[in-house]
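Crash report, auto-generated. Payload:
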Amino acid sequence: MLTPEIVEFLNHGTRTGMLAFTAGDGRPLAAPVWFLVEDGALVLNTGSGTAKGKAIARDPRVCLVVDLAEPPYAFVQVQGVAETSEDPAELLRTATALGGRYMGADRAEEFGRRNAVPGELVVRIRPTKVVAQLDVAA
Amino acid sequence: MLTPEIVEFLNHGTRTGMLAFTAGDGRPLAAPVWFLVEDGALVLNTGSGTAKGKAIARDPRVCLVVDLAEPPYAFVQVQGVAETSEDPAELLRTATALGGRYMGADRAEEFGRRNAVPGELVVRIRPTKVVAQLDVAA
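Recovered output after restart:
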Protein backbone atom coordinates (compact mmCIF):
# COMPACT_ATOMS: atom_id res chain seq x y z
CA MET A 1 0.00 0.00 0.00
CA LEU A 2 2.93 2.33 0.64
CA THR A 3 4.17 2.86 -2.91
CA PRO A 4 7.72 4.11 -3.52
CA GLU A 5 6.34 7.60 -4.28
CA ILE A 6 4.44 7.62 -0.99
CA VAL A 7 7.42 6.32 0.98
CA GLU A 8 9.58 9.06 -0.53
CA PHE A 9 7.03 11.66 0.53
CA LEU A 10 6.83 10.25 4.05
CA ASN A 11 10.61 10.05 4.40
CA HIS A 12 11.32 13.55 3.11
CA GLY A 13 13.44 15.57 5.52
CA THR A 14 12.05 16.03 9.00
CA ARG A 15 8.39 15.83 8.07
CA THR A 16 6.50 14.88 11.18
CA GLY A 17 3.44 12.67 11.35
CA MET A 18 0.22 13.80 12.93
CA LEU A 19 -1.24 10.87 14.85
CA ALA A 20 -5.00 10.81 15.34
CA PHE A 21 -6.33 8.74 18.21
CA THR A 22 -9.38 8.63 20.47
CA ALA A 23 -9.53 9.89 24.04
CA GLY A 24 -11.19 7.91 26.82
CA ASP A 25 -14.42 9.87 26.47
CA GLY A 26 -14.51 9.27 22.72
CA ARG A 27 -13.36 12.65 21.50
CA PRO A 28 -10.83 12.73 18.69
CA LEU A 29 -7.32 13.97 19.39
CA ALA A 30 -4.15 14.38 17.37
CA ALA A 31 -0.52 14.95 18.26
CA PRO A 32 2.66 15.28 16.22
CA VAL A 33 5.07 12.34 16.24
CA TRP A 34 8.46 11.45 14.89
CA PHE A 35 8.17 8.33 12.76
CA LEU A 36 10.04 5.94 10.46
CA VAL A 37 8.88 3.88 7.50
CA GLU A 38 10.03 0.27 7.91
CA ASP A 39 8.90 -2.77 5.95
CA GLY A 40 5.65 -1.17 4.83
CA ALA A 41 4.73 -0.03 8.34
CA LEU A 42 5.10 3.22 10.28
CA VAL A 43 7.15 3.11 13.47
CA LEU A 44 7.16 5.53 16.35
CA ASN A 45 7.86 5.63 20.06
CA THR A 46 5.57 6.84 22.80
CA GLY A 47 5.15 6.35 26.53
CA SER A 48 2.68 3.75 27.74
CA GLY A 49 1.26 6.34 30.13
CA THR A 50 0.79 9.10 27.57
CA ALA A 51 -2.56 9.99 26.00
CA LYS A 52 -1.37 8.31 22.81
CA GLY A 53 -0.16 5.17 24.58
CA LYS A 54 -3.35 4.77 26.58
CA ALA A 55 -5.51 5.39 23.52
CA ILE A 56 -3.73 2.66 21.55
CA ALA A 57 -4.17 0.23 24.46
CA ARG A 58 -7.92 0.89 24.39
CA ASP A 59 -8.33 0.83 20.59
CA PRO A 60 -5.45 0.12 18.23
CA ARG A 61 -7.06 1.87 15.29
CA VAL A 62 -5.09 5.01 14.49
CA CYS A 63 -4.39 7.35 11.61
CA LEU A 64 -1.14 9.09 10.77
CA VAL A 65 -1.10 12.01 8.35
CA VAL A 66 1.87 13.79 6.81
CA ASP A 67 1.48 16.93 4.78
CA LEU A 68 3.35 19.52 2.76
CA ALA A 69 2.24 22.87 4.20
CA GLU A 70 3.04 25.11 1.25
CA PRO A 71 1.99 25.26 -2.40
CA PRO A 72 1.21 22.98 -4.13
CA TYR A 73 0.18 21.32 -0.82
CA ALA A 74 0.03 17.56 -0.53
CA PHE A 75 -0.68 14.92 2.02
CA VAL A 76 -0.57 11.21 2.76
CA GLN A 77 -3.07 9.77 5.21
CA VAL A 78 -2.32 6.30 6.57
CA GLN A 79 -5.11 4.55 8.43
CA GLY A 80 -3.99 1.49 10.28
CA VAL A 81 -3.77 -0.72 13.30
CA ALA A 82 -1.09 -0.23 15.94
CA GLU A 83 0.91 -2.98 17.61
CA THR A 84 3.16 -2.17 20.55
CA SER A 85 6.36 -3.69 21.91
CA GLU A 86 8.48 -3.02 24.98
CA ASP A 87 11.50 -4.96 23.71
CA PRO A 88 14.50 -2.94 24.97
CA ALA A 89 16.74 -3.62 21.97
CA GLU A 90 14.04 -2.68 19.49
CA LEU A 91 13.22 0.39 21.54
CA LEU A 92 16.85 1.55 21.53
CA ARG A 93 17.23 0.85 17.82
CA THR A 94 14.11 2.77 16.81
CA ALA A 95 14.68 5.64 19.26
CA THR A 96 18.19 6.05 17.86
CA ALA A 97 16.95 6.00 14.27
CA LEU A 98 14.25 8.54 15.14
CA GLY A 99 16.82 10.79 16.81
CA GLY A 100 18.96 10.55 13.69
CA ARG A 101 16.15 11.39 11.35
CA TYR A 102 14.80 14.34 13.29
CA MET A 103 17.82 15.76 15.14
CA GLY A 104 20.67 14.72 12.85
CA ALA A 105 23.07 11.78 12.76
CA ASP A 106 25.40 13.39 15.29
CA ARG A 107 22.65 13.43 17.92
CA ALA A 108 21.09 10.03 17.14
CA GLU A 109 22.75 8.13 20.00
CA GLU A 110 22.01 10.88 22.49
CA PHE A 111 18.30 10.86 21.64
CA GLY A 112 18.25 7.07 21.45
CA ARG A 113 19.59 6.74 24.99
CA ARG A 114 17.35 9.49 26.26
CA ASN A 115 14.15 8.08 24.79
CA ALA A 116 14.69 4.30 25.08
CA VAL A 117 13.74 4.09 28.73
CA PRO A 118 11.35 1.84 30.68
CA GLY A 119 7.73 2.73 30.05
CA GLU A 120 8.40 3.67 26.44
CA LEU A 121 6.82 1.66 23.65
CA VAL A 122 7.68 0.85 20.08
CA VAL A 123 4.49 1.42 18.10
CA ARG A 124 4.21 -0.18 14.69
CA ILE A 125 1.28 0.89 12.53
CA ARG A 126 0.29 -1.55 9.82
CA PRO A 127 -1.65 0.29 7.11
CA THR A 128 -5.21 -0.78 6.35
CA LYS A 129 -5.96 2.15 4.00
CA VAL A 130 -3.75 4.80 2.45
CA VAL A 131 -5.03 8.03 0.89
CA ALA A 132 -2.50 10.15 -0.98
CA GLN A 133 -3.09 13.47 -2.68
CA LEU A 134 0.23 14.79 -3.84
CA ASP A 135 -0.87 17.97 -5.63
CA VAL A 136 -3.91 19.43 -3.87
CA ALA A 137 -4.10 23.03 -5.04
CA ALA A 138 -3.09 22.61 -8.70
CA MET B 1 -7.23 30.47 25.68
CA LEU B 2 -5.49 31.46 22.46
CA THR B 3 -2.78 33.72 23.82
CA PRO B 4 -1.03 36.18 21.50
CA GLU B 5 2.01 33.87 21.35
CA ILE B 6 -0.20 30.94 20.31
CA VAL B 7 -2.09 33.01 17.76
CA GLU B 8 1.22 34.13 16.25
CA PHE B 9 2.32 30.49 15.99
CA LEU B 10 -0.98 29.46 14.39
CA ASN B 11 -0.91 32.35 11.94
CA HIS B 12 2.70 31.88 10.84
CA GLY B 13 3.03 31.60 7.05
CA THR B 14 1.10 28.80 5.42
CA ARG B 15 1.10 26.44 8.36
CA THR B 16 -1.77 24.04 7.89
CA GLY B 17 -3.95 22.57 10.60
CA MET B 18 -4.39 18.88 11.04
CA LEU B 19 -8.02 18.24 11.92
CA ALA B 20 -8.79 15.11 13.93
CA PHE B 21 -12.32 13.76 13.74
CA THR B 22 -14.13 10.45 14.17
CA ALA B 23 -15.36 8.22 11.35
CA GLY B 24 -18.80 6.63 11.40
CA ASP B 25 -17.39 3.37 12.77
CA GLY B 26 -15.59 5.19 15.57
CA ARG B 27 -12.06 5.07 14.20
CA PRO B 28 -9.99 8.24 14.48
CA LEU B 29 -9.06 10.12 11.32
CA ALA B 30 -7.15 13.28 10.53
CA ALA B 31 -6.84 15.47 7.48
CA PRO B 32 -4.97 18.69 6.72
CA VAL B 33 -7.01 21.88 6.51
CA TRP B 34 -6.50 25.53 5.69
CA PHE B 35 -7.66 27.62 8.64
CA LEU B 36 -7.91 31.15 10.04
CA VAL B 37 -7.84 32.46 13.59
CA GLU B 38 -10.76 34.82 14.17
CA ASP B 39 -12.07 36.15 17.48
CA GLY B 40 -10.51 33.37 19.52
CA ALA B 41 -11.86 30.62 17.26
CA LEU B 42 -10.47 28.61 14.36
CA VAL B 43 -12.29 28.89 11.05
CA LEU B 44 -12.16 26.56 8.07
CA ASN B 45 -14.28 25.47 5.13
CA THR B 46 -15.26 21.94 4.23
CA GLY B 47 -17.98 20.24 2.24
CA SER B 48 -21.04 18.96 4.07
CA GLY B 49 -20.64 15.66 2.24
CA THR B 50 -16.97 15.13 3.04
CA ALA B 51 -15.69 12.80 5.73
CA LYS B 52 -14.92 15.86 7.85
CA GLY B 53 -18.32 17.45 7.28
CA LYS B 54 -20.22 14.28 8.09
CA ALA B 55 -18.11 13.63 11.18
CA ILE B 56 -18.83 17.10 12.56
CA ALA B 57 -22.56 16.60 11.95
CA ARG B 58 -22.42 13.39 14.02
CA ASP B 59 -20.19 14.74 16.80
CA PRO B 60 -18.96 18.34 16.90
CA ARG B 61 -15.97 17.55 19.09
CA VAL B 62 -12.81 18.02 17.05
CA CYS B 63 -9.13 18.74 17.52
CA LEU B 64 -6.90 20.86 15.32
CA VAL B 65 -3.13 20.63 15.64
CA VAL B 66 -0.45 22.80 14.08
CA ASP B 67 3.21 21.95 14.32
CA LEU B 68 6.69 23.11 13.39
CA ALA B 69 8.28 20.11 11.67
CA GLU B 70 11.93 21.00 12.16
CA PRO B 71 14.17 21.70 15.16
CA PRO B 72 13.36 22.86 17.76
CA TYR B 73 9.91 21.37 16.93
CA ALA B 74 6.79 22.83 18.43
CA PHE B 75 3.06 22.36 18.34
CA VAL B 76 -0.26 23.80 19.37
CA GLN B 77 -3.18 21.44 19.91
CA VAL B 78 -6.63 23.02 20.05
CA GLN B 79 -9.46 20.83 21.28
CA GLY B 80 -12.87 22.28 20.68
CA VAL B 81 -16.42 22.14 19.50
CA ALA B 82 -17.34 22.88 15.90
CA GLU B 83 -20.29 24.96 14.75
CA THR B 84 -21.21 25.11 11.08
CA SER B 85 -22.86 27.70 8.87
CA GLU B 86 -23.98 27.73 5.24
CA ASP B 87 -24.37 31.50 5.07
CA PRO B 88 -23.22 32.40 1.51
CA ALA B 89 -21.67 35.74 2.41
CA GLU B 90 -19.72 34.28 5.31
CA LEU B 91 -18.67 31.37 3.14
CA LEU B 92 -17.34 33.68 0.42
CA ARG B 93 -15.57 35.89 2.94
CA THR B 94 -13.81 33.03 4.69
CA ALA B 95 -12.99 31.13 1.49
CA THR B 96 -11.41 34.28 0.08
CA ALA B 97 -9.40 34.88 3.25
CA LEU B 98 -8.25 31.25 3.23
CA GLY B 99 -7.22 31.53 -0.41
CA GLY B 100 -5.26 34.65 0.43
CA ARG B 101 -3.49 33.09 3.36
CA TYR B 102 -2.52 29.87 1.62
CA MET B 103 -2.20 30.80 -2.06
CA GLY B 104 -1.29 34.47 -1.85
CA ALA B 105 -3.27 37.73 -2.01
CA ASP B 106 -3.30 37.70 -5.81
CA ARG B 107 -5.19 34.41 -5.87
CA ALA B 108 -7.54 35.06 -2.92
CA GLU B 109 -10.60 35.99 -5.03
CA GLU B 110 -10.05 33.08 -7.40
CA PHE B 111 -9.98 30.57 -4.56
CA GLY B 112 -12.83 32.31 -2.77
CA ARG B 113 -15.11 31.99 -5.79
CA ARG B 114 -13.98 28.44 -6.44
CA ASN B 115 -14.55 27.22 -2.89
CA ALA B 116 -17.62 29.23 -1.79
CA VAL B 117 -20.14 27.00 -3.53
CA PRO B 118 -23.37 25.32 -2.39
CA GLY B 119 -22.69 22.36 -0.12
CA GLU B 120 -19.67 24.01 1.44
CA LEU B 121 -19.69 24.89 5.12
CA VAL B 122 -18.04 27.46 7.31
CA VAL B 123 -16.74 25.56 10.34
CA ARG B 124 -15.94 27.55 13.45
CA ILE B 125 -14.10 25.69 16.22
CA ARG B 126 -14.47 27.19 19.67
CA PRO B 127 -11.59 26.02 21.86
CA THR B 128 -12.34 24.03 25.01
CA LYS B 129 -8.71 23.14 25.75
CA VAL B 130 -5.43 24.33 24.29
CA VAL B 131 -2.10 22.55 24.71
CA ALA B 132 1.00 24.37 23.47
CA GLN B 133 4.56 23.15 23.53
CA LEU B 134 6.69 25.65 21.69
CA ASP B 135 10.14 24.13 22.18
CA VAL B 136 9.88 20.34 22.26
CA ALA B 137 13.40 19.08 21.60
CA ALA B 138 15.43 21.63 23.56
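Post-recovery validation: The mean pLDDT of chain A is 96.
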